[in-house]
Amino acid sequence: MAIARVQVTGNSANSSTTVVKAFVSNVTAGNTIIVGVSSNVNCPLASGVTKSGGTATIGTVTRDIYAAVSGSSPSCAIYSIPITGTGSCTITVTLSSGYHVLAIAEYSGVLDTSPCETTAAGTIGADTTEETNNLVGTLSTLYLYQFAENVGDNFTRSYTNSFVGAFEVNTAASTMAGALAELITTPGTRSTVCTKTGAAADWTSVGAAYKPTPAGGEEPLTIYMVE
Amino acid sequence: MATVTMAIQQNRNAGIFTTPSWHVPEGLTGTISLATNILLSDLQDVRNSLSYLMFVSDDNVTWREYAGFSWEGGNYLDKFGQITKGPNCVVNLAEIVGKYVRVQLTIGRRMAIGLDLDY
What we know:
Helix content of chain A: under 10%
Distance between the termini of chain B: 6 Å
CATH class of chain B: Mainly Beta
Largest interface: A-B, 30 and 29 residues
Shape of chain B: globular
Order of helices and strands of chain A: EEEEEEEEEEEEEEEEE
Strand content of chain A: over 45%
Oligomer: heterodimer
Largest sheet of chain B: 5 strands, antiparallel
Largest sheet of chain A: 7 strands, antiparallel
Helix content of chain B: under 10%
Radius of gyration of chain A: 18 Å
């Protein structure tokens, strides 16, 4: 089954200890929630990402990849959550007081169990060209990178290798900038470079790749006829 | 940039305070910032706390959760060593143009607080 993005949203919260965002539409059982967090303090363990409201039910939260604060470079992380019951859904991320960007996305067609095949460890820099480590997928068709920039500025981004910005915060109204970049494609080795306009900033990126549900949902059945 | 005062800064008791609603005009683009306006001495007081939840409505009658954050008082410094301003929340206008918004503040301890909406 092909992976498809159903919806994405997010926000930023400044000088806060939680950041909260509700999906605009109901989420659907069998789909997967991806949570991307960028912050000037360390992103939380999986236990720090919870469903705080709504009628949907979710399974266990997994923190698939994480990069801690390093010097002036911010922290970022990607989490995945199976949706077990259809309904409205509000996600809360709890962390130390700071500046945070939250992106939440719902995907259909992602494998239910252990969907994350591979991850790309954090890379950091202090310029306007944000590189990533490679995601080497042999089964994955969804490739995601979370970016974090320790800056409050109005700017735009561009991505290489056909990645698109599923959700971005690039505004001076927020003290922290961040983005969830996405590529839905065939299995392979993937990476991107996010180039921002404006001033240089301390940045961090992490990545994760997700496997699709096999076509038909089951392994092929072989029947032997014996006379 | 335009500012709408959702609630003027004044002493407010502990408890839940909900702002009046505001209709987000059609045609706006970019982001909108819902910024608290907290008295500096209250901002720096570690005993203070706040939970902020923004709601959205199509008809100004039925409301659903939209975005939010929590805050704890303290003398926090930003990366430039400056005292941080009051907490704020930034959301994309594309999702809320033509709708109504309002904010529910759960105030942990009496403090002087207001709320401005900048877009």
